[in-house]
Design a protein that fits this description.
Blueprint: H1 9-16, H2 23-44, H3 52-64, H4 66-69, E1 79-83, H5 91-97, E2 102-107, H6 110-122, E3 128-132, H7 135-139, E4 148-154, H8 159-166, E5 170-180, H9 182-195, E6 203-205, E7 209-210, E8 217-223
Parallel strand pairs: 1-2, 1-4, 2-3, 4-5
Antiparallel strand pairs: 5-8, 6-8, 7-8
Helix pairs in contact: 2-6
C-alpha cells in the first residue's frame, strides 16, 4: 500500500460535505488509520485496496454515505452493531466521525478483531467495542437481546443471512441498514421481503449512488 494517506482537494470537499463535527480531527484520525492499516496489511492482508484514493473513496466516503440517507445517525446517541466488521469498515470510520454513536464491531476472525482493537487504541476511540464472536451466537445470549438501535453490515453475507442471525438484537423500532451494490439489491431486496412477509418489518432501498471517479455504485437496503 502507498504510505501517503492524504486525500486530494477534490475528495476533501466531498468528505467535508458529510458535515462531520470536528472535521480536521476526523481527517487526522483517518490519515493515522490509513498509515496503520498500510503497515498491518503487509503482515496480515487485511484489505485489497492499495492506494490512498481507494482508501478514501472505497472505504471512508463509501461508509459515510450512510448519513446522506439516514442523517439522524450523525446526531443521535444510537447503539450500533456492525456485523462482520472486518478491518473496521464501517465501524472505525463511523466511530471517528460521530462520537455520539456507541458502536459494537462484531467479527468471528481473531485476526481482524485484534487489528480493530489495536486501531481503536491508536485512535483513542472511547465509543467503539470489538467482539470476536459470530452474530448468531451473540444473538442467542440474553445480554444482547433488543440491545441495538441500528444493525448494519457492509461487504459481508446476504441481507437475509444477516437479518436471520442478528434479528434478536435489534430494539423495537430499530433499523437494519445494509451496504450493498445495485446488483446485489436486485435479488436481495426481494428475498428479504419474502423471508419477512409475516414479520412486523418492511424493507426498502435507496436510489443507487456512484462513488467518486467511477469507483463503483452503491445502494442501501434498509428496514422501515
Amino acid at each position: 500500500m502507498d504510505s501517503n494517506p492524504n486525500s486530494s482537494p477534490e475528495l476533501n470537499e466531498i468528505l467535508k460535505s458529510f458535515n462531520i463535527t470536528g472535521y480536521p480531527a476526523f481527517e487526522a484520525s483517518m490519515m493515522k488509520f490509513y498509515a496503520y492499516l498500510a503497515e498491518e496489511n503487509e503482515k496480515y492482508n487485511l484489505t485489497r485496496l492499495t492506494t490512498p484514493d481507494e482508501f478514501w473513496i472505497k472505504h471512508v466516503i463509501d461508509v459515510l454515505y450512510i448519513v446522506r440517507y439516514f442523517p439522524e445517525i450523525a446526531s443521535s446517541n444510537f447503539k450500533v452493531a456492525d456485523i462482520g466488521a472486518g478491518a473496521g469498515f464501517p465501524s472505525i470510520v463511523l466511530a471517528c466521525a460521530f462520537p455520539n454513536l456507541h458502536i459494537t464491531a462484531i467479527d468471528s476472525s481473531h485476526k481482524k478483531t485484534d487489528f480493530m482493537r489495536r486501531a481503536s487504541e491508536l485512535l483513542e476511540l472511547k465509543n467503539l467495542s470489538v467482539l470476536t464472536v459470530r452474530a448468531r451466537e451473540m444473538a442467542a445470549k440474553r445480554e444482547w437481546k433488543l440491545k441495538f438501535d441500528i444493525i448494519t453490515a457492509r461487504a459481508v453475507s446476504t441481507s437475509t443471512d444477516i437479518y436471520s442471525e442478528a434479528r434478536g438484537m435489534l430494539r423495537k423500532n430499530g433499523k437494519y441498514i445494509f451496504y450493498k451494490t445495485p446488483r446485489q439489491s436486485e435479488t436481495e431486496l426481494g428475498d428479504i421481503r419474502k423471508l419477512t412477509v409475516t414479520h412486523a418489518v418492511k424493507w426498502n432501498c435507496t436510489e443507487p449512488f456512484s462513488l467518486p471517479r467511477n469507483l463503483g455504485e452503491r445502494i442501501f437496503i434498509y428496514s422501515l
